[in-house]
Amino acid sequence: MVRIAAEGLSWSVSGRPVVRGVDLDIAPGETVGLLGPNGSGKSSLLRCLAGLRVPDAGTVRYDGRSIRDWSARRIAREVAFVEQDSGFDTDLRVADVVGLGRTPFRDRWHGPDATDRAVVAAALDRVGLTGLAERSWKGLSGGERRRAHIARAFAQQPYGLLLDEPTNHLDVKHQWELMELLAGTGQTVLVALHDLTLAARHCDRLLLMHQGRLIASGAPAAVLTTEHLAQIFEVDAELTTDARGRRSVSYRGPLRAPSPAPAPTTAPALRQGTS
Fold it and tell me: What is the DSSP code string of 219-241?
């Protein structure tokens, strides 16, 4: 497990701010959902945290150590990143694609050994793809490819997982199974999601982004409020809570006149909240 933190993180493209002064602190073993409408900066924030974007300002830290001067190999041994859409296309077997997760641990001149093959087999089993190990990548459905990418992340054996919309292309059954799997790994997990009920049911804590800033951080019941749903997502929604305190969201429809967005909370409130 790894503590993933950011201090004053900002990133822009062509002079346009995309991530604005983000402070966050994700505790070892915590499962945190990253929410926000399209264009709010979720994907860019994840890429900064994964070391794939060099921030204009601020610092990313793993267990208190800045990753600014770390190599890609060293970062990959700490944290695995699953993109929203990799655009990956190959004639390789599924097992070989998942085996790419072992790259940070192998010498470039040597192929996979018995340990690598065992780790890949275990990763495929975790996502329910053992029977597809020998199939060509091009023969997979979108949902199967998504699960294979997650297996590749597991094959890295990282201390933390950063995932950008991992439930895309998955049917309902596999969405819930994946979230149960992520929440039960014991690893530090930050996962961007659009399904608010899925996030509320499986995450210890939620982060809410809007226009590049973190607007709220805390337990699902504190972040998923009718006010936030109206102000940030521009929808009229009803929230219910079951006997175990788990929140669900249902929608009446879009708001025709969106409410003004709230000001960002102060920095201390954006640090680790109550689960």
Answer: -HHHHS-HHHHHHTS-EEEEEEE
Beta strands in 14-56 (DSSP E): 16-26, 31-35
Is pTM beyond 0.90? Reply is no
- What is the pLDDT tens value at each position of the chain, 275 positions in all? 899 999 999 999 998 999 999 999 999 999 999 999 999 999 999 999 999 999 999 999 999 999 999 999 999 999 999 998 766 677 889 999 999 999 888 777 677 889 989 999 999 999 999 999 999 988 888 889 889 999 999 999 999 999 999 998 888 998 999 999 999 989 999 999 999 999 999 999 999 999 999 999 999 989 999 999 999 999 988 888 887 777 788 888 888 765 566 666 544 444 444 43
Cα separations in angstroms, 183 against 84, 146, 189, 202, 274: 19, 18, 8, 6, 16
Q: How many CB atoms lie within 10 A of CB 271?
A: 13
Interhelix angle 114-126/142-155, nearest 10 degrees: 130
CB 99 within 8 A of CB 112: yes
Q: Are 134 and 96 in contact (CB under 8 A)?
A: no
What is the CA angle 176-214-17, rounded to 5?
Answer: 115
What residues contact residue 75 under an 8 Å CB cut-off, 6+ apart?
50, 51, 67
- Rounded to the nearest 5 percent, the helix, strand and coil shares of the chain are 35, 30, 40
